[in-house]
Amino acid sequence: MAKSAPTRKTAVKPASGDDDFALRSLQEAHAASGRYAASDEELLTFYQQMVLIRRFEEKAGQLYGLGLIGGFCHLYIGQEAVAVGLQSALDGERDSVITGYRDHGHMLAYGIDPKVIMAELTGRGAGISKGKGGSMHMFSVDHKFYGGHGIVGAQVPLGTGLAFAHKYREDGGVCMAYFGDGASNQGQVYEAFNMAALWNLPIIFVVENNGYAMGTAVKRGSAETHFYRRGTAFRIPGMDVNGMDVLEVRAAAEVALAHVRAGKGPVLMELKTYRYRGHSMSDPAKYRSREEVQEMREKHDPIDAAKTELLARGVTEERIKDIDKQIRGIVNEAADFAENSPEPDMPELYTDVLVESY
User: Fold this and answer.
1) How far apart are CA 273 and CA 220, in angstroms?
2) How far apart are the first and last CA of the chain?
3) Residue 260 Cα to chain centre, angstroms
């Protein structure tokens, strides 16, 4: 019987640019960058912003319990370091932001007036969406904040469109598109990844991985639980970031922004974070133990960590107490403003529904 000829192994020539692609390059750059070297005043500002989000969301929870907020209400308590750390690195004059329905914290981190946010939550005419959007549909063109979207994952292709607009207009802007670990399994997310990479768009995809989506643990709902790897098939480099440390988040944001602004295309960031409350105010969160939540509060809370670092730097306890007192006053004033503002006029039902002129 004749022997078959030995199989020859031929070298496959890589496609153009393949040899230059390093999937882990940004992760390595992030590891090398460490934590952001914030001044005392910068860290105080981050602390103040995180406390504002925490106290605002606590007040929103109270107003929901009193029946002053209707519909759904998704609180950001525990995830404050993500929005503050990332958005502190953005350029408010040219960059855009889009997120899902857990959006109050992002708006506050962007410096939007707590009064108009609380008025929107309570359905008042003075709200940022004129009382018609509520908790999940806030919007501010002036701040380049494009929602607030109730459909899971829908903001990702919309954010890709915003990034396309930045590139088309050559305005130097970057879109930051937030979504959760649950939305990461949506098909439209991967269509957006493909287009963003194909067209080399200036976008940072941010997965806020709080571990439970709407109520299902990540390990029970996702085959690949390392979400920063999800862009591999589209040649999008990923970054794995501790979302409970505001200084690490800020440092990671600078690495990602430098990559995108250099014209190298999209980045996928996974921010590992944790929400202390349920998915929404109607969620009893029985899918996890009280001990787990308590451990996260006691050992990983982003606000407590920032406070500890400030005290170690020599910032006085009195100054921190003054900030806390000031924040409580701002939040109470926002609640009073919302409760005393009138509901929208009836004709408002017909505005912002259709574009009447182009």
Assistant:
1) 18
2) 79
3) 17
Strand partners, 272: 209, 242
pTM of the prediction?
0.91
Cβ contact 197:260 at 8 Å: no
* Segment-wise mean pLDDT, segments of 10 residues, the chain, 358 residues: 49 47 79 95 98 98 95 95 97 96 94 96 95 92 92 96 98 97 96 98 98 94 94 94 98 97 97 95 92 95 98 97 97 98 92 75
Closest alpha carbon to 44 in 311, 333, 343: 311
Tokens of 35: 């934590």
From CA 36, how far away is CA 53, in angstroms rounded?
A: 21
What is the rounded distance in angstroms from the CA atom of residue 280 to the CA atom of residue 72?
7
Report the relative pairing of strands 238-242 and 175-180 from DSSP bridges.
unpaired
DSSP state of 322: H
Q: What 3-state class would DSSP assign to 18?
A: helix
What is the C-alpha separation between 107 and 130, in angstroms, rounded? 16
How is residue 353 written in tokens?
């529904």
Q: Which residues contact 62 (CB under 8 A, 6 or more apart)?
A: none
The Cα–Cα gap between 195 and 162 comes to 12
Cβ contacts of 158 within 8 Å, gap of 6 or more: 98, 146, 147, 149, 177
Please state, in angstroms and rounded to a whole number, the distance separating the CA atoms of residues 103 and 139: 10
| Residue 203 · residue 266 · CB < 8 Å | yes
On the 0-12 / 13-18 / 19+ scale of CB atoms within 10 A, 122 is buried
Closest CA to 29 of 264, 190, 303: 264
Distance CA 146, CA 165 (A): 13
Q: Are 69 and 63 in contact (CB under 8 A)?
A: yes
Instruction: Determine the length of the chain.
Output: 358
Nearest to 239 by CA among 262, 209, 261: 209
What type of residue is 215? G
Query: How far is it, in rounded angstroms, from Cα 259 to Cα 253?
Result: 10
